[in-house]
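Researcher: Quick test of sequence recovery. Tokens follow.
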């Protein structure tokens, strides 16, 4: 007797079981690969904080191999880390709720000299209704913290550098402003700018809206040109009116200013804004104007002097008959002009009076002889242009009188009195 048993379903069940086993093994292998190769620390601990499972990244954080930690309590092999971690794992065992984004700061070497920063997530692992372990997911953010600290230090250094630069700008005796963008919004105004124009709440506002003086001086167009071309402007000297220090709405006397505009650039090379530096040059401009006036005056004096010399030469030529007489008279008259010009230079800032002029010309004939001459004239203040000619006339009268007239007798000891005509 032959008996046949249908094993089709059994074979199908076995094949299905083998496939399920293979799938489970594959998934487990995948999970194991992910667990072991994850760039974050993964571990599983029981209630005694004994390592049940740990991946390579967590082992490196603890400073030991996985084989050295499996089955060991954390407090035995990493007591410092345990002290920082246990309060959080105990809370998970107690509440059954995860603790996420926990920041752990702890020493990561035996000497306790190297500090590590970590962000950890702790979550309960259940077996039925009971928690049999706590899983942990730890990210090492030590390098990020170092970079963040370095960034903060650099930021503070930049702020201090900027503050130092602003203090330097404030100490410079110039009106300095820094603007940004095509609207020329103020980033900085110097102390002198605030003193001259007042506290106008300019930071962050467009120059055209809060600085009417720029429009009055036609400088807004210059700002536009510097910003769009990336090339500087100036120095250029302009005359402008600025508010009075006592009343910011009351304009005061116009002053002269030298203004220079320079672009500043962003890290990508594009123009970021404009730096304006303005110096008050009123004193320099006035000195320059005074110099020009003095040069014109000198030119005028030299011209008059040359005209006078020409007249003396012509007059001397017509009143002398020999070369010797001409030379003697001409050089004597030139000496008189020179003496008078010396007198003009010495009294340039004092009144030129007729009495002083007569005194000086009479002293030229000799102090003893001058002492014998008494005179009484109106004390006139002479215009500067009249002094050389009048001095020459007095010199001629005195010289001729000494040679041929009344003063000839003065040489013999007589005294004379000159009186004004009424």
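Model:
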């Amino acid at each position: 007797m032959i008996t046949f048993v249908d094993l089709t379903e059994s074979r199908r069940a076995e094949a299905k079981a083998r496939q399920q086993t293979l799938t489970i093994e594959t998934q487990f292998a995948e999970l194991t690969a992910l667990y072991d190769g994850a760039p974050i620390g993964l571990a599983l601990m029981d209630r005694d904080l004994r390592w049940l499972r740990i991946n390579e990244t967590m082992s490196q954080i603890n400073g030991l191999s996985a084989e050295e930690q499996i089955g060991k309590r954390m407090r035995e092999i990493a007591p410092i880390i345990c002290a920082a971690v246990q309060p959080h794992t105990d809370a998970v065992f107690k509440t059954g709720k995860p603790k996420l984004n926990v920041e752990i700061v702890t020493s990561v070497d035996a000497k306790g000299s190297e500090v590590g920063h970590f962000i950890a997530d702790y979550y309960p692992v259940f077996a039925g209704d009971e928690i049999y372990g706590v899983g942990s997911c730890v990210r090492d953010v030590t390098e990020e913290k170092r970079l963040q600290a370095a960034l903060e230090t650099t930021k503070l250094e930049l702020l201090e550098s900027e503050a130092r630069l602003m203090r330097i700008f404030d100490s410079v005796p110039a009106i300095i402003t820094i603007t940004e963008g095509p609207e020329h919004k103020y980033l900085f105004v110097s102390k002198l700018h605030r003193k001259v124009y007042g506290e106008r709440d300019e930071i962050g506002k467009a120059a055209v809206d809060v600085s009417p003086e720029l429009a009055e001086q036609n400088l807004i167009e210059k700002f536009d040109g510097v910003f769009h071309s990336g090339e500087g402007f100036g120095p250029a000297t302009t005359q402008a009116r600025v508010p009075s220090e006592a009343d910011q709405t009351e304009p005061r006397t116009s002053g002269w200013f030298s203004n220079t505009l320079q672009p500043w650039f962003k890290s990508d090379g594009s123009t970021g804004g404009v730096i304006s530096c303005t110096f008050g040059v009123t004193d320099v401009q006035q000195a320059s104007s005074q110099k020009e006036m003095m040069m014109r005056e000198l030119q005028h004096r030299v011209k008059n002097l040359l005209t006078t010399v020409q007249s003396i030469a012509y007059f001397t030529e017509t009143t002398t008959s020999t070369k010797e007489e001409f030379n003697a008279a001409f050089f004597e008259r030139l000496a008189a002009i020179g003496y008078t010009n010396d007198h003009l230079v010495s009294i340039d800032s004092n009144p030129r009076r007729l009495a002083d002029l007569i005194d000086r010309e009479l002293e030229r004939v000799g102090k003893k002889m001058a002492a014998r001459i008494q005179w009484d004239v109106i004390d006139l203040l002479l215009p500067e242009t009249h002094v050389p000619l009048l001095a020459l006339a007095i010199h001629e009268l005195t010289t001729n009188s000494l040679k041929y007239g009344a003063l000839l007798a003065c040489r013999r000891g007589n005294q004379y009195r000159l009186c004004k005509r009424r």
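The longest helix spans residues 282-319.
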